[in-house]
């Protein structure tokens, strides 16, 4: 049985990877699908192509995981691919309330089931939006994202060492 793990992955975090690695042990195959919405164009830090490349790097060691993208309703993607299982990660009770509504809606719209996998406790506080904000201040995020995400964030915002040098009082000309 194969499953689909949808999301924006802007960027993928260690929490996402935790859920994905565990799902890849449960299911014969998992397709990580970057869902893109034309109305949200410009609201993402990374372009669709950048997110797909980061995901490919992060999942290179998971042989039964493939990367894809789709614009539209998830249930349409599921029908097109003939998949019936959606994997969603949960960090907290507040995630559950939102995800439960979406799961019921997806079940109503298409013949799909949603399987929830709780993120490991050590990743329960990590979200892509928090990672983006921390990285925007050139702070180190390597402990909460895979290496490919950390490198991509460093390219977007500058190296975390610059922040450390700034805090240490090293003049910009010497950095």
UniProtKB/TrEMBL annotation:
Residue ranges annotated as transmembrane are none
Chief location bin:
cytoplasm
Query: Which residue numbers delimit the Cytidyltransferase-like domain?
Result: 4-133
Cellular compartment(s): Cytoplasm
* NCBIfam families assigned to the protein according to its UniProt record, in alphabetical order: coaD_prev_kdtB, cyt_tran_rel
- Ligand binding (substrate): 8, 40, 74, 88
- Protein source organism: Deinococcus lacus
Alphabetized GO MF terms:
pantetheine-phosphate adenylyltransferase activity
Q: Which top-level enzyme class is recorded in the Swiss-Prot or TrEMBL entry?
A: transferase
User: What InterPro entries has UniProt attached to this entry?
Assistant: Cyt_trans-like, PPAT, Rossmann-like_a/b/a_fold
The answer to whether UniProt assigns keyword Nucleotide-binding to this entry is yes
Question: What name has this protein been given in UniProt?
Answer: Phosphopantetheine adenylyltransferase
Q: Which CDD domains match?
A: PPAT
Residues under site feature: Transition state stabilizer: 16
Function as written in the Swiss-Prot or TrEMBL entry: Reversibly transfers an adenylyl group from ATP to 4'-phosphopantetheine, yielding dephospho-CoA (dPCoA) and pyrophosphate.
The record's similarity note reads:
Belongs to the bacterial CoaD family.
- State the reactions this protein catalyses: (R)-4'-phosphopantetheine + ATP + H(+) = 3'-dephospho-CoA + diphosphate
What superkingdom does the record give? Bacteria
Q: Which PANTHER family match?
A: PHOSPHOPANTETHEINE ADENYLYLTRANSFERASE (PTHR21342)
């Amino acid at each position: 049985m194969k499953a689909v793990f949808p999301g924006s992955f802007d960027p993928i975090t260690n929490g996402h990877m935790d859920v994905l690695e565990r799902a890849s042990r449960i299911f014969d195959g998992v397709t990580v699908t970057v869902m893109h919405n034309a109305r949200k164009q410009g609201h993402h830090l990374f372009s669709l192509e950048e997110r797909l490349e980061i995901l490919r790097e992060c999942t290179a060691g998971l042989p039964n995981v493939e990367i894809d993208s789709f614009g539209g309703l998830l249930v349409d993607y599921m029908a097109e691919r003939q998949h019936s299982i959606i994997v969603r990660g949960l960090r907290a009770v507040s995630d559950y309330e939102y995800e439960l509504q979406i799961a019921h809606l997806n079940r109503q719209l298409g013949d799909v089931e949603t399987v929830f996998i709780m993120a490991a406790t050590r990743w329960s506080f990590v979200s892509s939006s928090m990672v983006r904000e921390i990285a925007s201040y050139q702070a180190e995020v390597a402990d909460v994202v895979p290496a490919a995400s950390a490198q991509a964030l460093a390219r977007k915002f500058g190296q975390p060492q610059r922040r450390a040098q700034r805090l240490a009082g090293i003049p910009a000309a010497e950095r």
